[in-house]
Amino acid sequence: MTALVEILIFAALSIYLFLKLRDVLGTRTGTENPPSFMADENDADSKVVPFPQGGKDMIIEGEFSPPLQEAISKLEKRDSSFEIHDFLDGAKKAFQMVIEAFSRNDVETLRMLLTKAVFYQFEKAINERKAQGHVLERHIENILNADPLEISFDDVMVRIHVKFVTDQLIITRDGDKLILDNPSRMITRLIDIWTFERKIQNSDDFWLLSATRSDA
């Protein structure tokens, strides 16, 4: 295969991956765990307009409570390309893509889904795992919930905090494929808070993961 053909194939694959990731969150139409990284939302020059943080009382019989619905309505007026249910569907897909990419050391996929600061933390964790000769097997068995907790935006950026409740199978093996933890293959229920951000009124851009943390 000539170098030119290889370049063309790589370019085609890159374009396909970019469009796939954009569809996921883009428009309306230990080393076994991803590292926690909290972004500083006060870095923006413009005043951030926060809305009440969520909790159990923010979701009422499958719908959103009045404070959260007010936040959603304000954002929809500012960004006509935004629709909350489409966003949450995309957020669940992105969650699975990030977990899978982190598990198989796929830094190129992570680079397209994460902000630079978060990508650095994920890449560091992957390199540490590889240096130890460990192999991670992590499978999402079920996404039980993906609920918005808080919405904030300024003149440039919108950020949405989402609480994920998932059942996952997590196994770490050594270089000889021997299981180092979870030999009984128990399913673990995890709670994660992820923050997604995108430039406001820019439907050509897709959402990026800008902060992560685990919740007890």
Give a short summary of the structure.
The chain has 216 residues and is an alpha+beta fold. The chain is 37% helix and 29% strand.
Overview of this protein structure:
- The protein has one domain: Nuclear Transport Factor 2, Chain: A (Roll), CATH 3.10.450.
- Mean pLDDT is 79; it is low at 3-29 and 40-61.
- A hairpin with a 2-residue loop joins strand 2 and strand 3.
- The chain is elongated.
- The protein has helices at residues 3-25, 66-78, 84-103, 107-113, 116-131; strands at residues 49-50, 59-60, 63-64, 135-153, 157-173, 187-199, 208-214.
- It is 37% helix and 29% strand.
- By secondary structure, the protein is of the alpha+beta class.
Write the layout of secondary structure elements.
Layout: H1 3-25, E1 49-50, E2 59-60, E3 63-64, H2 66-78, H3 84-103, H4 107-113, H5 116-131, E4 135-153, E5 157-173, E6 187-199, E7 208-214
Antiparallel strand pairs: 1-4, 2-3, 4-5, 5-6, 6-7
Helix pairs in contact: 1-3, 3-4, 4-5
Sheet with the most strands: spatial strand order = 1-4-5-6-7
**Helix tally?**
5
Task: Estimate the global geometry from the Cα principal axes.
Answer: elongated
User: The biggest beta sheet, please?
Assistant: 5 strands, antiparallel
CATH domain class: Alpha Beta
What structural class do the secondary elements suggest?
A: alpha+beta
CA-based gyration radius = 19 Å
Determine the strand fraction and express it as a percent band. Answer: 25-35%
Q: What is the total number of structural domains?
A: 1
The average pLDDT is 79
